[in-house]
Amino acid sequence: MYTDKVLKYFHKPRNLGKIKNADGIGKVGNLACGDMMYLYIKVENIKGKEVITNVKFQTFGCVAAIATSSAITEMVKGKTIEEALKVTNDEIIESLDGLPPIKIHCSVLATEALAEAIYDYLKKSNKPTPKDLEKKHESIVRHNEELEERYEEWMENQKE
């Protein structure tokens, strides 16, 4: 079901943990499957470019969620903000030698966690936010609000 690489990243995740005083924090989740990802970034200005010098994650979820979180941290460490924003879920899947179709949403969550961490960094730093990133952030916020509403409705129905 899972490739050797996915299992390797699951059993020995890279960049696991939290960055104290992170420059940006991305938090995303999928209520349907229960996965929750936090991605922390540290950004430094190197030769006039904003570079992700450290990145860590905390993921509560399945094998694929942990593996994709770990993979994206390795993919973006040392990249500029612009380069990191170009990482796609397909590239994550490819870096892991594939994911089962039912687990592809985990790679999407990983890219969303990164986008949210970068968005958070740019907002905290009072830096301009690219329009594509602003749209992605708005979509993630809407999605999270919808999920929260569904969860609250479900909880109310459980009381009856």
TrEMBL record:
GO terms for biological process: iron-sulfur cluster assembly. It holds the Pfam family NifU_N. GO terms for molecular function: iron ion binding; iron-sulfur cluster binding. Residues 1-126 form the NIF system FeS cluster assembly NifU N-terminal domain. InterPro entries: NIF_FeS_clus_asmbl_NifU_N. SUPFAM superfamilies: SufE/NifU. It comes from the Bacteria. PANTHER family: IRON-SULFUR CLUSTER ASSEMBLY ENZYME NIFU HOMOLOG. This is Iron-sulfur cluster assembly scaffold protein. It comes from candidate division WWE3 bacterium.
